[in-house]
Structure formats: C-alpha cells, structure tokens
Amino acid sequence: MSEKVKVKIARNVIHLPAIALRGLVVFPNNVVHFEVGRPKSIAAIEAAMHSNSSVFLVAQREMDVEEPGLRDLYAYGVIAEIKQVLRVSDELVKVLVEGKTRARLVELVDGEKYLQATVRPVPVRGIGADKRTQTEALVRSLKECFENYLSYSPQISKDVVYNIVTATSPLYLSEYMPANLLLKYEDKQAILNESTLLGRLEKLLTLLRQECQVLEIERDLDDKVNAQMDKGQREYYLREQMHIISEELGDAEDTRAEAEEYRKKIEALKLDSESTEKLLKECDRLSRMQGNSAESGVIRSYLDACLALPWHITTEDNLDQNHARKVLDREHYGLQKVKERILELLAVRKLNTDVKGQIVCLVGPPGVGKTSIAHSVAECMGRKFARMSLGGVHDEAEIRGHRRTYIGAMPGRIISAITTAKSSNPVILLDEIDKLAGDYKGDPSSALLEVLDPEQNCTFKDNYLDIPFDLSEVLFITTANDASTIPGPLYDRMDVIELPSYTRTEKFNIAKRHLLPKQLKNNGLEGRVTLTSSALYEIIDGYTREAGVRTLERTITSVLRKCAQRIAAGEKEKISVSASTVKALLGPEKVKPTFISRKDSVGIANGLAWTSVGGEMLPVEVAVIPGGSGKIEITGSLGDVMKESAKLAISYARVHGEEYGITADRLKNVDIHIHAPEGAVPKDGPSAGVTLTTALISALSGIPVRHDLAMTGEITLHGNVLPIGGLKEKSMAAFREGISTVLIPKENESDLFEVDAEVKQKIHFIPVEHLSQVLKQALLLPGHSSSRGTHTVPQATNLIANDKSTKEPATVM
Predict the structure, then answer these.
(1) 48, 284, 461, 752: least surrounded by Cβ within 10 Å?
(2) What is the distance between the alpha carbons of residues 191 and 200, in angstroms, rounded to a whole number?
(3) Do the beta carbons of residue 742 and residue 732 sit within 8 Å?
(4) Residues designated as active site
C-alpha cells in the first residue's frame, strides 16, 4: 500500500488512515490534543500529513488491546483534520486535531504500516417542527442540570462554563458538553452513537443527572469524614480532661493490656526495689495514655530498651590455662610476654571468682594485633564480645546516653554494647581510647572514669535509662597507640600491657602461618599459588616499613591479586612466587636504606629514638667550619630539649677537650654546625645527649666514630649518663639496622629483661655511667682501631614507617 493516501469519494464513501484511540472520544467541532505511541498510529499520522491532513479517529472498546481489529472498534467515530504534530521522540508524537464530521466505520484494512478505514459520513438528523418545543425544554433542563453539576465540580474552567451557558444551538450543545465534561469514555461514545439530536439530548441529560447524584454522594461522604475528624479532635481533648471518657469509649483497653504485659516482664526481672518502682510508674503512665499519642511511643521505647538489657544473664567463664594457651598460640605468633600476662589474668580469676575491676589496656604500634588479642581473650573465656570505637568521639552523651527529655534520645554506647552482646559479663573492647576528643558537649574521657572504675561501675547510670546497671562483671579491654595521650586519671585505672614491634623473623612466621593462608582463601588461590620463604622475606625487607603487619598483609594481597589475574587470563594454572617474581610483580623495592653512618666516619654518630610507631635510628652530624668565630648552628627541626642537649655537649667539649687533643683555641676559631637528618621530621627529647656529644668530640678531634655502634642516654653538665625510656623499641631499631653494639645508661640495665631474646642474641649491650666510657667505646682512638672499622653494615632489613609528610615527631626519650 502506498504511503500517500488518496481520498476517494464514491457513493459517499471515504478511504482514510485510521487511529484507534484508547479512553478518548473526539466529537465534531471540538479541538483535542493527545499523544500517539503505537507505530501504526504514528504511521497513520504521517500518511495523513502527506495527503490532505484528514484522519479517521475512532475509540476502541477495550483499552488493553494492542492490535485492534474491526470488532475491537466502535461503529462511529469522527473525521478530523490534523492541525499540528510535535514529535517528542522516535516512539512518541503529540497531535492537535479538530473534529469535522461524524462518520460510520464501514470497513477496516490492516495494512503493513497503518490502519486504513472506509467510512461513510453520517451527520446527526435534525429536528422536525413538531419537536422544537420538546427540544427547547431539553436544552433548558440540560443547562439547569449543568448549574447543579457546577456546585459539585467547581474545577471546570470559566471558558467551558461560558460556552455552555451561552450556547443556543442544540447540536453544538450536544457535542460540546460531552467533549468537555468529566464523563466516562463509554458514556461519551454512547452519545456519539446516537443519530438523532433529540435522542442525544435525552441521553446527555440522563448521564449528567447520574453524575450529579454520584458527586452528591461523594460530597456527603467527605462531610462525614470531616465530621468524624472533628469528633476525633473533640474526643482527644475530652480524653485529656477526663480519663473516664476514655474508658467509656473503649480506646484505653489496648494501652492497658500493653502496660499489663510490660508490668509482668518487669516483675519477672526481679530488679532492686528502686528500679522496679520507677519502671512500674512508667507502665502506669502508659496505661492512662491514648494509644496513638507521641508520649506513649516514647514510653514504649524506654521500656523496650530497659527490658532488652541482659539483666542477670551471664555466660560461664572457661578459665582453663591449657585451653587459653592453645587459643592464643593458634591465633597469634610470638607476643610471649603478652600471652603470659593474659594467662596470669585468667589464673587470678580462676583462684578468686569474685575478682572485679580488671581493666586491661593494650598499648602498641598500629598493626601489632591489639584488637585480635581482645577477640582471643573473649574466645579463651567463652564470653560474648562487643567492640566500640572511641576514635574521634567528642560527645559525653556517646558514653552516658541522652536524657529522655531530648527528641530522639537513645542509650549510650556502653549500654548499647551490653544489649548487643546479650550478656551482662561480656568482653567489651574500647578501641582507640587514646584518640578521644572533648569539646563544648563534654569530655568523654571523664565520662569513662565511672565506666572503668571498679568502685563505681557496679551502679553505672546511663542518662537514658536512669536506673543503675552493674558493669562490674564486664571485662573491659582498651587499646591505644600512644599511652602518653591517655588522660592520667583514666590511665591510672587500667592494667597496661605493652605490645612490642615485630622482629623480621616474627613477621615471616606471622605471614607464613596466618596472613598468607587467609589471603589465599580470600582470593580463591588455595592450591594454585605458593610463596617461597625468599619471597616472603623479600616482601618484608623491600616493600614494608612498619611496626605491625598491616602493610605486609596488603602487599601479600597485592601479589596474590596479580597472580590471580594471570591465572584467570589462562596464562598459567599454578604459580610459584619467588623473590625475583615479587620484584617483577611489584616493581622496584619501595623501602630505601635508612640514612645512618655505614662506615667509620668523623663527626657522625648513630643515636636511637622512640616514636609512637616504634623505634628509629637517629644519626647526628657535626661539621667544623674553619675560620669562624665560635658560632653554633643547630638544624633538623630540633625541639628545645634537644637544643639544650647540644649546648651541654659543647660545654663538655670545652671542659674535657684536651683529653682528646682539642685545644682551647680550637672552639674559638671555628663555627660548629649540628644537624639531625630528615629535617622535615620534628625531634625532641633528652636521650640524644650522648650521641650529640660523641659526634661533636669526633668532629673537633678528627677521631672517627664506630659505625656498628649506636647509643642512647641523657647527659648532665658533668658528663653523667642518665636513664631514658623506650629501650625496648630503640633496641629493636638497632637490631633491624644490623647494629652490633648499643651503649645504654647503667640505670637502664634492668630494662634489658623486657628486650626480646632474639635482639639480645644479636646485639651486645654495654651499660655506661659517664661520657668518658661512651667516648672510649665509640671513638676509634689511636692504637684501638680494628678491622671492624672498615666493614660495612648490611642493608636495613626493615624499618618502622615514619612518614615525613605527616610530620610525626620522632621523640627521643
């Protein structure tokens, strides 16, 4: 069939493109716009636009029919003229048409592109002279009924009202009214089907009266609903003024039954008399309230929170030493002293079951296993476990809860953790307790004093609950990276257990026994990828620099991901990763050798420092500039205490310089520059005193300092060496760098008991009391040099991260 449609008029029959309308009836002499979405309807519009813009519009009987045939369409429709077409998209067209002539559908041809209809124009038959009076009466009745209709439906536009009220033509009225009133499309089609004007007016009047009756019923229903709402408001005020009315209405029965249920549960808890009395009062308040009031919801939430607590519900402790040791050894490698402390804690609880108030604080660098130790303690004892992070908490209400006077009040984190654990004696981990903050909302660390005080926490009162809850059976375990930032009163309530940095051997065993099997399972590589010992050591030495093992685990995961990619791509079925393979996968080594003196040098001495993430090597350089005037320059972001140590070193050099060949004029004719490398990292503390003095004496005398020796200690003006802190971490740093000898203050000799056995096997510790002893050991005095002065220290195996960008202080203690 050609796209161009020729309008043929033969025997009063017209062939036109047809559009089946869903839920829409178009009348003659009316302008209508609608959307077309079916492909055949869009094609019919395009065909009509290519000819004379005429199209036959007919409504279909069922709206859900997608491909309507002759039987699916009504017999009568309208020949319309397309006035405007707007293409919204490829699948949607908006059309503006004007109805011209009523027509009867004679034949329908379903073409490939659109429907083509054969129609015969059928105008409405006029009115005879004898029917004029009856017609005029119908028109008046229609207008009166329309005015009644307006009283129920005032949203009709003013133009439509004006056109209907002022209309004088019965034919115009019979076509304009159904086209513009909100009638069902079946009713509109029934009017269009009527061939006589008198019959059409009668049918229209009947439909309009039915519609008015429906609207009247709807209005009555709305009035009844509004009246009911007013009645509800009245009843609300009556309930508030006279509770007896609530009983007569029967609306209080639900809250009474609910309050009775709460009362039974409260009495079954067998709490102390004060708590029971307070909760029962809340039940009484609930029973007197309207069920849908806001305050009743607040009371329900409060009672639910109180009843959800595990009152008198405890778990039985498993304090068997062998079981606990097996669990700790299975979950953690090394940490022998930490495990012993935990076993001692369990042993005390076994011998004295009434012991209370054991608050454990695990202090150590990030990634050494503080949180997992807490998990293991809960598993050892067979207790429930709950964790709450305190990092960044600055609102006291986070600990104690909000008072119920506030909207959205809720219990604090302690009570929430107890509720989650479903036991009144769980193990609760307070993570990152050293990172608490305080502001205008209160100080959370002060709120924790009651929680962690065994003399007070047996009657801990949350602001929301406002009744005491016994926390004395709870085993609190806290973690911190830096104990110095924990407030003193809070720190005093805790039993501190220090977790040291891991040695190279410990990291290897942790990776082999725990990290590698875990990540092989997580990445689906069990039995497909193996990492040799050399590969693990290469990752530890060349790609990680930390006290713990988090970066080590991430690096192992990175290696496994790259292996998984190759296996998934079909390159290999199994991969064995060696040290060389690690370099090929991860690229060049990321850990660079630490800057320390690696050969016997003049004016450079190796010191030891303590940071919040472990020990560090801290070399000190001194340069003597001839032709000066005795000026002293100190650089390297040194704090006030270290600057004072430098002044002490200079004073000692002036007093005892002759012992090392330094003349009195030497210090007057030179400038001295003292520098601590990695200048971007702030440094402070008194324990660099011996290092500064040794480097200064070496620079002034020209005597080299041993490169395989490190030292730490505070000095006095007369050269005495005073004790320092952090010996354990400092010795670990010397061990990592391959230092063979470490000079320590004599008074720190007892601290060697805490140093790892592996470190003590590799390092020779020499206690010293005076600077003369330090210089005797550190300086290669004439006649005392040996072959040790020429060999080079092996490259660093690992180093705790000290990111320059974070400006984290390398505090020398």
Answers:
(1) 284
(2) 6
(3) no
(4) 687, 730
- Does residue 75 contact residue 104 with C-beta atoms inside 8 Å? yes
Asked whether the beta carbons of 675 and 664 are under 8 A apart, the reply is no
| Domain 321-498, CATH among 3.50.50.60, 3.30.428.10, 3.40.50.300, 3.40.190.10 | 3.40.50.300
By three-state DSSP, how is residue 670 classified?
A: strand
Q: Is 364 annotated as a binding residue?
A: yes
CATH 1.10.8.60 is the classification of domain 504-586: yes
Cα 477 to Cα 427: distance, rounded to the nearest angstrom: 7
What Cα–Cα distance (Å) separates residue 124 from each residue in 31, 271, 481? 19, 90, 95
pLDDT digits (tens, 9 = 90+) for 102-124: 899 888 887 778 888 888 898 88
Q: 84-103 pLDDT, tens per residue?
A: 888 888 788 898 988 888 89
User: Which residues lie across from 171 on neighbouring strands?
Assistant: none
The number of beta carbons lying within 10 Å of the beta carbon of residue 107 is 12
User: Is there a binding annotation on residue 593?
Assistant: no
Token pair recorded at residue 641: 């205490």
The bridge status of strand 683-684 relative to strand 810-811 is: parallel
Q: Name which of 314, 345, 350, 451 is nearest 393 in CA terms.
A: 451
What global pTM score does this model have? 0.58
The rounded Cα 496 to chain-centroid distance in angstroms is: 31
Q: For CA atoms 719, 723, 725, 727, give the dihedral sign.
A: positive
Q: What is the C-alpha separation between 745 and 747, in angstroms, rounded?
A: 5
367 is in an annotated binding site: yes
